[in-house]
Write a structure and sequence with these properties.
The complex is a heterotrimer of chains A (259), B (280) and C (301). With 259 residues, chain A is α/β, with parallel strands linked by helices. Chain A is built from eleven helices and ten strands. The longest helix of chain B has 36 residues. Classes of the chains: A alpha/beta (259), B mainly alpha (280), C mainly alpha (301). Chains in contact: A-B, A-C, B-C.
Chain lengths: 259, 280, 301
């Protein structure tokens, strides 16, 4: 990526005064944030600070939690995602998600990857074959599973499962990938593989990643947002946040004084 | 104190062993291929229980076919759709109530509703539908239990790919609860085999041999009802004991099958789903 | 491009509609149990009330004579009510102690193979069809009673009580065992640490903390006993006498079952009224059961 590209990058998701409550507990307080396209944005902060909630709001996964209540706006490519004309399944097709624990479905590797395209109406066998291969290659796992496409995905190792889940998310050709601590359940070698993968994916996708691991955020992200008790304390380029944070609390957190 | 406990446990054990031994001793000598493969005739006086066996099979099939979609559907509603806790409480209370109602009352209402009001007359189908209501709570419960064990992460994964609720249920949730439905079916089969009071006035006690669809619309005795009729009204104790022995073998077999299935499914699940159920 | 967008929008509207319809279908399936309870209640009330009106509620419930086929028919169901109450109480008196002690033994003392054996025995007892109990009662118990007590006919209240006691045993044991096994081991350990013997511990600590569950087990047994028809029908003799241990008697359930097939007119309506009375008892028992289950936090099996 060259400097010109970086300048060209536009805002893809922007939130304004976003508040989320679970019953009486306010998990996000007036979060206003612009996320640039084709970049990696890391969300950091101690447990319960609202970073996961923020992530899950962006593709409306919070709809699944009954007690969750949201105010404010989230614009995805200038469209309000909470507007009645916004179809949730369309939104989630554009904004994919990878979870903390690998969660392949109890079906074959092939069916896992084909699940999304099938959901959105792709039936042709040849097309599906093509998508499956492309997605698995995209997730850097094709070589490991090309002979196991018909085997149950639960037989793969944890790291493989997570890359399969990334392939599954890629198969619907999303625009944005939300990743909720995708490596926290994995061993260091698998983690390195996934991090390399994420860096590759940046070429074509916008990635927003929640992480507990400061080194990880530093290694892969372009921008970093620090959350604390539902507040977006500080948001800016990763280099700046980790070298000269403007807020004392950010400094305390990244230097490990709490959290 | 310990002696009393030991005696009580011994009585329990002794009772079942006594019943099994007694029924087998009295009944097995009367079981013959002729008994199993013929219909009864008055002239010459002859007893055959083939029609009763067939009726039992018909009624089990008919009940399960109707019961599975209804019971599993109700369970899916409770576990996957229902958001209003009051509605859930009402439905669960209703299921509790149903499972406490004695079978004679089911027989009576089944007779009034299915045989008379719905015009099915006394028939296997009316009997089967009555049994469906009786067994609904049990299949609901087993399905619900197994729906609870389908990891939340499967649902989340599917939703995150943009799948609609129904697609998520059909493709990810339902395959995970097949075991509960099967266990429920086996338990229900056991109960249907043993049921008599609910069938007396709904399915009747005819001993004619019919094909499946003919049979559904005609009255017919199941094995239990036939046992009752032979023992109580005709004094044919040989046939009654033979049927009792067959019933014991069947119910013991089915109950052990249910126990085995439960263990087997639990083991399979522990191996099959390596991850813990995660809920945010 | 706009055409394509329109298509996806239409697609989305269609999809939403399908989802709503499916939601509706599942809602209806969910409400089936409620519908069934309502159906049963309404049918019993509607068909049970007329005869009570014609006969007179007091006459019906407290009348001591049932002669439905006499020239001048009498419809008093007090004998049935009392028989059901006595029969159920008798079965409880006989079945609960055995069931209770067996449950403590299974839950606390039995280990390994013996425990498995006992639990299988209980499971098997629960699976025996009621007509088989009836048959065995009829062929074994009734002659014994006749010989032992030198009465002309062995079938009657005593035979019914014994058969019912055996039939409720598995439910009592199963629910009690579940309740006893749910007692936190810390309670028992605390008692053992104070020097109490295991047996003392089980009866002073475990049983009291499982009392709601055990109460639920007893109530469940009451429900099973009062609702049983076929087995009782085969050993009770079925004459509408006032209850007495060696007398031939009729329960609420058997009163309905024994005359249903040839009844008509007011007699038939009166049978529905009996069913309504039985249903009323069952509802009371259910309410009690739910109360204990909730308090004891045990699941019905």
């Amino acid at each position: 990526m060259n400097a010109e590209d970086k300048q060209k990058s536009d805002t893809i998701i922007s939130t304004k005064d976003l508040n989320v409550w679970y019953d009486d507990f306010q998990a996000l307080i007036d979060v206003t944030m612009d996320i640039p396209e084709k970049s990696i944005t890391a969300l950091i902060g101690p447990s319960g600070c609202g970073k996961s909630t923020f992530l899950r709001t962006l593709n409306r996964m919070n709809d699944l939690i009954e007690s969750a209540k949201t105010t404010g706006s989230v614009l995805y490519r200038d469209q309000d995602i909470f507007h009645s004309s916004m179809e949730v399944s369309e939104l989630r097709r554009h904004i994919g998600m990878v979870f903390q624990k690998p969660n392949p479905f109890p079906m074959s590797v092939y069916d896992n990857v084909a699940y999304g395209p099938r959901t959105h109406g792709t039936k042709s066998r040849a097309k599906l074959d093509d998508i499956v291969e492309r997605s698995l290659r995209g997730a850097a796992i094709w070589d490991e599973v090309r002979d196991k496409l018909r085997q149950n995905a639960l037989g793969l190792s944890g790291g493989q499962q997570q890359r399969l889940c990334i392939a599954r998310a890629l198969a619907v050709q999303p625009d944005v990938l939300l990743m909720d601590e995708p490596t926290s359940a994995l061993d260091p070698i698998s983690t390195t593989k996934i991090e390399e993968l994420i860096l590759q994916l940046k070429e074509n996708y916008t990635i927003i990643i929640v992480t507990h691991n400061m080194q990880q955020a530093l290694r892969i992200s372009d921008g970093t947002a620090f959350f604390l008790l539902g507040d977006l304390v500080e948001y800016g380029s990763t280099d700046i946040i980790f070298s000269t944070p403007s807020d004392k609390r950010t400094e305390d957190y990244i230097t490990g004084r709490f959290g | 104190m310990k002696t009393i406990m030991w005696i009580s446990a011994f009585i329990t054990c002794g009772l079942i062993i006594g019943i099994i031994v007694y029924v087998f001793a009295k009944g097995i000598p009367f079981i013959s291929w002729d008994l199993l493969s013929t219909s009864p005739t008055y002239i010459p006086p002859h007893i055959g229980i083939l029609p009763d066996i067939m009726n039992t099979i018909y009624i089990v099939i008919a009940s399960l076919v109707v019961m599975v979609p209804l019971g599993a559907g109700a369970a899916i509603y409770l576990e996957e759709y229902a958001t209003n806790q009051k509605v859930v409480a009402v439905i669960e209370y209703a299921a509790e109530t149903l499972s406490g109602i004695p079978s004679i009352i089911y027989g009576l209402v089944g007779m009034l509703f299915f045989c008379e009001f719905a015009g099915l007359r006394t028939s296997i189908l009316a009997g089967a539908l009555t049994l469906v209501i009786m067994n609904l709570p049990s299949i609901m419960r087993t399905t619900q239990e197994s729906l609870k064990t389908v990891p939340q992460s499967y649902r989340e994964g599917a939703f995150a790919l943009g799948a609609g609720k129904w697609r998520v249920i059909r493709t990810v949730v339902l395959p995970g609860c097949v075991d509960g439905i099967i266990t429920g079916c086996v338990l229900a089969t056991g109960r249907i085999l043993g049921e008599s009071a609910a069938l007396l006035f709904t399915a009747g006690f005819a001993h004619t041999l019919n094909s499946f669809f003919e049979g559904l619309m005609s009255p017919g005795a199941t094995l239990t009802v036939a046992l009752y009729v032979y023992a109580k009204e005709q004094g044919e104790f040989g046939a009654a004991f033979a049927i009792a022995a067959i019933l014991m073998i069947l119910t013991l077999g089915i109950n052990s099958l249910a126990m085995w299935l439960e263990r087997h499914f639990r083991k399979m699940r522990e191996q099959g789903y390596p991850q813990e159920k995660t809920k945010e | 491009m706009t055409r394509k967008k329109q298509n996806t929008m239409q697609e989305n509207i269609k999809r939403k509609r399908v989802e709503r319809i499916i939601h509706g279908i599942f809602l209806m399936l969910g409400l089936i149990t409620v519908g069934c309870v309502l159906l049963i209640t309404i049918y019993l009330v509607v068909s049970g009330i007329p005869a009570m009106r014609t006969i007179g509620l007091k006459e019906f419930l407290l009348g001591r004579k049932w002669a439905s086929t006499a020239a001048e028919p009498k419809y008093g169901i007090l004998p049935f009510i009392l028989t059901s109450i006595y029969g159920t109480s008798g079965a409880i008196l006989l079945g609960v102690p055995v069931g209770f002690f067996a449950a403590v033994y299974i839950a606390k003392i039995a280990k390994g193979k013996i425990k498995w054996l006992l639990q299988s025995a209980v499971g098997m007892l629960a699976g025996v069809p009621s007509v088989v109990y009836g048959l065995v009662g009829m062929m074994v118990l009734v002659p014994w009673i006749r010989k032992l007590f030198k009465v002309p006919d062995g079938s009657g209240l005593l035979a019914s009580i014994i058969v019912l006691a055996v039939m409720i045993l598995p439910s009592i044991i199963k629910v009690s065992v579940t309740a006893l096994e749910a007692v936190p081991p810390e309670y028992e350990e605390a008692s053992l640490a104070l020097g109490a013997t295991p047996i003392e511990t089980y009866f002073r600590v475990s049983v009291p903390s499982a009392r709601s569950g055990i109460a639920a087990a007893v109530v469940l047994g009451v429900g099973r006993a009062i609702g049983e028809a076929m087995a009782v029908m085969m050993v009770a003799g079925n004459a509408p006498n006032m209850p007495s241990l060696f007398e031939s008697v009729r329960f609420l359930t058997t009163a309905v079952a024994s005359e249903m097939s040839y009844s008509s007119g007011l007699q038939r309506q009166a049978l529905f009224s009996i069913a309504l009375v039985l249903y009323f008892f069952i509802m009371l028992i259910n309410a009690a059961l739910n109360f204990f289950l909730k308090r004891g936090n045990v699941k019905k099996l």
